[in-house]
Amino acid sequence: MQKTDVVVIGAGAVGCAVARELSKYQVHVTVVDKRDDIGGDASKSNSAIIHTGYDAAPGTLESQLVVAANPMYDELTKDLDIPFERIGAVLPAFTGEQFEKLPAIKEKAFQNHVYDVEYLSREELLLKEPELNPEVKGGLYIPRESIIDPFILVQALAENANENGVDFMLNTEVTDIRTAEGSVTAVVTTQGEIETSYVVNAAALHCDDIAAMVGKADYKVVARRGQFYILDKNTNCKVKNIVLPIPTKITKGKLMTPTIHGNMLVGPTAEDLDNKVDVSVTAEGLDSIYEDVRKMIPSVNIRDTITQYSGLRPNRNPEGLHVDVYDDLNGYVNLSGVRSTGLTLSVAMGKYVTEKLKEIGLNLILKDDFKKTRKGIPCFHKMTEEEQEAVIRENPLYGTIICRCETITEGEIVDAIRRPLGARTVDAVKRRVRAGMGRCQGGFCGPKVIEILARELEIPANQVEKNLKGSYMVTGRNKKQRENGYV
Amino acid sequence: MYRVECDVAVIGGGPAGLSAAVAAKKEGSGKVLVIERDESIGGILQQCIHPGFGLTYFKEELTGPEYAARFAREAAERGVEFLLNSMVLEIRKEEGEILCVNREHGLTMVHAASIILAMGCRERTRANIMIPGSRPAGVYTAGAAQRLVNRQNQMVGKRVVILGSGDIGMIMARRMTLEGAEVLAVIELMDYLAGLTRNKVQCLDDFGIPLYLSHTITKIDGYQRVEGVHFAQVGADKKPVKETEKYLECDTLLLSVGLIPENELTRKADIEISPVTNGPKVNQYMQTSAENIFACGNVVHVNDLADNVSVESRRAGAYAARYAMGCLARETKRVENMPGGNVRYLCPQSVSATDEDETVSLYFRVLHPDEKVIIRAKSGDKILSSKKAARVNPGEMEHIEIHTKDIEENEVTVEVVKEG
Question: How many Cβ atoms are within 10 Å of A101's Cβ, its own excluded?
Fold first, then answer.
């Protein structure tokens, strides 16, 4: 049986941030996730924004964590080589009713210790964001609202944790948690049992199922679906800031923002589901995004969409972000209600959960050899010509462009597969190096990525998967080759 | 940086690029270099292993690779040079420079007196047409599936539905059937076929594959792999009629829902692009808004036959060669070609009239199908030429010839009107 000091269930942003924080100490950590890749669930489908917490419910744990997390990103993204930009957000008011809400929003920001929110006049807003509906009456500016590559955030946290000794077990589903005399003793998985005294439940959408294994499911996770559009980098109507709507009582509304890679992101919807799997997009949902967003940005050209996706927010019923430890169950930390702000607050949560573990008895002694930096995959199209020449000389695979839309080389794809916690699926390649994320959506590079994955992983092409088990890309050799005995 | 000098540089070694390169050589050009991103030439023809090529150009029926080989052989005989495995990153039109990259030489700068754009087109995707539903494996554009099956020898699925009646979709319907897959339906949004009638006959009818016109897919099911699609009839507004919805259990959905000229390089080089064709605007020499840059084939406008591409590209090659040699005739008058009734666009978009009389073919597509029509080219009130057509269809390109000496105004209009 494997032995470890702490099992973290869930390799999303929060799970990986907890693992990375713990990897600063002399403890052995194992992260388990049932999916094919790190960051493979809620952490991959969101609005890719690092929030300030200006609109959180003041005084709540969620507010504290988001507000604490935002300033951490300047250093973290440098240390871990994560694309990040503080572009700022505008909150324009178009009606008298919306305009009257601005002081209350600013007041709330103040209560959340977000002191840098400013009023902007109509003229100032239009100068800052020329694509706004000219009927705008005025609004707020929130300078530290930022954009990030959410995939790379999770990968970077995980890779750095891994380099500092954390083990990751993917395609590993937790089926039970064993306890004895009021303490955690082991985690049972589809890949065997792991002996441990500490468990952190960071299973997001499925955290209630995990909690039920130890009798702590006093809440339910309700998947709240958010649908999004991604628009082509060449779309003629682009915003420079995150453009947020004034929230109503019912919804936070739909936003438009640049992504860190220069696309436009438009959405999301907010629909409570009766299941935890339905990441479909719907005609009604997509239409509603367009209807709402064009009130703020009238020229938004939704026909320039290159993809649509949806993600599931692990909302909690009853609501609220919770980090629970239990008198009658030693060694168990339960995280629940980590929703839209989860990506942002993950890094603060890592520190918070570490303190909680210390409180409940985990012996934490700092390592003296913690390596705090991580280098990402060299990005060919961002290099100078001299750097491009050098990298091709060193590794000729950088001289072959595989994804023409995003100018991604074979060198980058191979690096994505070969590096620790490397890509094992087509989508995992895409989330690491953006091959297939451009306007042709893998029409050109998809077949080649299958070929490269098969070659690098030394598997037949029909074992290459898109993401989950069973998501095979091809069924096997064609007739002629089968007849000639190829496999 | 590795540098190459040439007279005419051609970007793309598919049907357009090969034909243009051969024509440039025939015209007497010095060094002609084709830059190709693939490891071999022929472009998309390499995966088009079906027959149907060459019927008009060579007066015999060839497969795609055979058709490409004819041009490849002639190119080799005439001394056309090739830079393979090379992706173009940027065109610097003022300098006449093309920056590309390959494994062997790293960054490579090609300098050319004239440049021919022959990058072809790409396929519209599921996202472009916003099909609702989940996003499982098993949704392919028809061309990507064709590459997998014909070049990588990998089958993409066993029970297949095809959305869109474009030519590649219909050809893949037959191909998948021959490979042992079951093709359940070809579903087309419009009330007419998107591709060629001959492909419907040879690829669908001959194999008993049903074609549903005025239908669309309303939802894709399945989280790992496609499990099925919902489809429904559409009303006059092209919106699905809920009551007519049906379900097809399948593991694969192929999309043949249109092609888009591949003009990222053109756009970056700030060459004028037609919003209708999504390709560079050209004159009858296939010359773009940059005088040293020519364009031909699907990068200009999507053709339905490779044979047509070859013909059009010969002009681009010949005139690019003349430009490189400094002997392209001087323009005396610029004439704009305007689409009239039931004409979606005209290519070329303009005519550069010179002192010499020239015969110019104006290619176009109609907006909607019609029968017993007259195709007419006019300049002002003067009819330049006209011809009858038994039927016209948006899926089949038409053309009409005019003589430049007949043009008196600064504008030529082509219209398709009912006979009588």
Answer: 16
Would you place residue A484 in the very low, low, confident or very high pLDDT band (cuts 50, 70, 90)?
confident
* Matching CATH number, B331-420, of 2.30.29, 1.10.3470, 2.60.40, 2.30.30: 2.60.40
Sort out which chain A residues have CB atoms less than 8 A from B149's CB and list them.
478
Percent of chain B with pLDDT over 90: 97
User: Is the domain defined by B125-257 classed in CATH 3.20.20.300?
Assistant: no
Contact B135 A309 (CB under 8 A): yes
The minimal CB distance from B127 to the residues A306, A479, A480 is found for A306
Do the Cβ atoms of B179 and A401 come within 8 Å? Answer: no
CB-based contact A389 B1, cutoff 8 Å? yes
Tokens representing residue A5 in the block: 């000091």
Q: CA nearest B135 in A: which residue?
A: A280
- Taking residue B330's Cβ as centre, other Cβ atoms within 10 Å add up to 7
Q: Respond yes or no on whether ipTM tops 0.90.
A: yes
Domains B1-123+259-328 and B125-257 belong to one CATH topology: yes
On the question of pLDDT at A40 being above 80, the answer is: no
Domain ranges across chain B: 1-123+259-328, 125-257, 331-420
Q: How many residue pairs from chains A and B have C-beta atoms closer than 8 A? A: 145
Query: Measured between beta carbons, which residues in chain A are less than 8 angstroms from residue B178?
Result: 479
A278 Cβ under 8 Å from any chain B Cβ:
yes
pLDDT tier at B395, thresholds 50, 70, 90: confident
Long-range contacts of B23-26 (CB under 8 A, 24+ apart): B23/B313, B23/B314, B23/B315, B23/B316, B23/B317, B23/B318, B23/B321, B24/B116, B24/B317, B24/B318, B24/B320, B24/B321, B24/B324, B25/B75, B25/B78, B25/B79, B25/B80, B25/B317, B25/B321, B26/B78, B26/B317, B26/B318
Order across the sheet with B246-249: list the strands.
Answer: B215-221, B228-233, B246-249
Q: Is the pLDDT of residue A84 over 80?
A: yes
